Amino acid sequence: MTESDRPVTAPRGTTLSTEQLAQVFRLLKGADGVELKLSVSDADRRSAVAALDIDALDAQVRQVAFLDTPDLMLDARGVVVRVRRVQRKSADSIIKLRPLDPSDVPKQVRTSAAFSIEVDAMPGGFVCSGTMKATLDDAEARAALRHARPLRRLFTKEQRDLFAAHAPAGVDLDELSVLGPINVLKLKFAPEGFSRRMVAELWFYPDGSRTLELSTKCLPTEAFETAAATRDFLAARGIDLTAEQQTKTRAALELFAAGLREAEPTTPDTEE
């Protein structure tokens, strides 16, 4: 994991420090929402699905593709470029900045209806990000990901301007590599005994590994109360809250980028 998307964390099994809690409070004041996340290890996936009575047949099929250079230059700068196709729905694209300090966001960007700031929290850690999102025609998204359309057409002028302001010099949208797509099953459900709706996402990686993420969203003013209630609910159902946490994006970027680098032709050494 690079510094760009590494959450602020406390050592496993400990709570956040006073300084970290102060940082959380400050970030929450500038955020639009909070998403509480938990990665479930593949070894515990079946038991977690059973404990929450999740029915996989209710899930929606999605495809997610990231755009970056083979050496992940955007990721290193904290810029995430993503295109998502959704079964029987419109596609969408995002430009995400992570980590982000809300106080650093220019007013023109912050007041855009397409831009939002969210704090993601997981056991022992948190990270703040800003996302500019646009809805896409699915056929257009599919064509661009198959290199039949310029990639820049997947993004609005606002998104392109945000990209240009934060991407490394010389990195152009049309020249980015498509990392993916990766298949995802997403299910929104209302578990018995819990007052909030939850989301389960199962990501299928090209090496055969999988990541199950459980999440729920709330307003910034509800963050600590919702976090405590979610923790108690999941723990009561035997779901391990101490497992190592990983970001879905991080795993996908590393796997697909490694595949791109392996596929690049090498120039044979020549003797003089």
What's the count of strands?
10
Termini gap: 41 Å
CATH superfamily: Hypothetical Protein Pfu-838710-001
Mean pLDDT: 89
- Proportion in β-strands: 25-35%
Quaternary status of these chains?
single chain
Order of strands in the sheet with most strands: 2-6-7-5-4-3-8-9-10
- Sketch the topology as an H/E string, one letter per element: EHEHEHEEHEEHHEEEHH
Low-confidence stretches: 1-6, 9-14
Integer tally of domains: 1
Would you give the CATH topology?
Hypothetical Protein Pfu-838710-001
User: From the coordinates shown, what is the CATH architecture?
Assistant: Beta Barrel
Shape: globular
Rg estimate, integer Å: 19 Å
Helix content: 25-40%
Q: Which structural class matches the secondary elements?
A: alpha+beta
Q: What's the level 1 CATH class?
A: Mainly Beta
Task: Characterize the largest beta sheet: strand count, sense, and whether it forms a barrel.
Answer: 9 strands, mixed, barrel
Tally of individual helices: 8
Explain the overall architecture.
- By secondary structure, the protein is an alpha+beta fold.
- It has one domain: Hypothetical Protein Pfu-838710-001.
- The chain has helices at residues 18-29, 45-51, 73-76, 107-110, 138-145, 157-166, 223-236, 248-263; strands spanning 8-9, 33-40, 60-68, 79-86, 91-97, 115-122, 125-136, 177-189, 198-204, 210-218.
- The protein has a 9-stranded mixed beta barrel, surrounded by 5 helices.
- It is globular.
- The model is unreliable at 1-6 and 9-14 (pLDDT under 50).
